[in-house]
Write a structure and sequence with these properties.
- Helix 2 runs parallel beside helix 8 (about 200-220) and helix 7 (about 160-195) runs antiparallel to helix 8 (about 200-220).
- By secondary structure, the protein is mostly helical.
- It has a domain at about 40-200.
- It has helices at about 5, 10-35, 40-60, 65-95, 100-105, 115-150, 160-195, 200-220, 220-230.
- The chain is elongated and about 70 Å long.
């Protein structure tokens, strides 16, 4: 079977919808992670807060709170990785038995009426989920590296190694957060790709919806406005 045979069930609108989905995914990732923009995303803004966290970490005693925060972050990545792996298992099981989906497609008079078409459409979702799983897994590992570096920060704030090591932990933690966000975006686009089972127009509509959702949360959300708002001046209690 040639690549052309695999694409036979799809028309130009199908291919255009998949291309738009892929381009939107790459463009969002590039724009969100761009640190030189005059309008930074929530992801970039949180990177600055993570660096400030590590600056405060150097002088904080005890440091139990910081360990608790990092533990919660690792727990989130572990949960997302486990959930994505379960979703992948279910998807591969569905690819192995597409008859129920084909029956639904026939009932709804949809275009995906043969096993090969359904399997290819589900494979696109599987690629997004696999990417998300790998990103969550790597994010969890990076948070672990950050925890080790934080443990290596000297207890004495005046130690010349204290701040540089804290900044190393901050940068590794930022990379962990970036990979976690990449996994989340891949999950969103995996959900959008499922709409391809309903047709190419449904995939285009789902792509627009996901792009708007991710964009609004990164650039037009209330939380972003809070992050940009400078803190009120300290009150004089004298």
């Amino acid at each position: 079977m040639t690549p052309g045979d695999l694409l036979d069930p799809f028309d130009s609108l199908d291919l255009a919808a998949v291309l738009i989905l892929t381009v939107a995914w790459f463009f969002l990732g590039f724009r969100i992670e761009r640190t030189t923009s005059a309008t930074p995303s929530v992801t970039v803004l949180m990177g600055a807060y993570r660096r400030e966290w590590m600056r405060q970490f150097v002088t904080r005693t005890p440091r139990i709170y910081d360990a608790s925060v990092l533990g919660n972050l690792r727990q989130s990545t572990s949960w997302m990785a486990s959930t994505t792996m379960i979703a992948l298992g279910g998807l591969f099981a569905l690819i192995g038995n597409t008859d129920p989906l084909i029956s639904v497609a026939e009932d709804l008079a949809l275009t995906a009426r043969n096993a090969r078409t359904v399997e290819i459409k589900l494979l696109l979702t599987g690629l997004f989920l696999a990417h998300a799983f790998l990103k969550f897994l790597w994010s969890n590992r990076l948070f672990g590296y950050s925890a080790v570096i934080m443990s290596a920060v000297p207890n004495d704030p005046g130690d010349p190694l204290a701040l540089p090591r804290a900044m190393q932990a901050a940068e590794v933690g930022i990379r962990a957060a970036v990979n976690f966000n990449r996994g989340l975006r891949a999950t969103y686009f995996a959900l959008a790709s499922l709409s391809w089972l309903l047709g190419s127009w449904a995939l285009l509509a789902a792509t627009v919806a996901v792009v708007w959702l991710v964009w609004s949360r990164e650039f037009a959300s209330h939380s972003r406005a809070i992050l940009l708002d400078p803190p009120p001046p300290a009150r004089n209690r004298d």
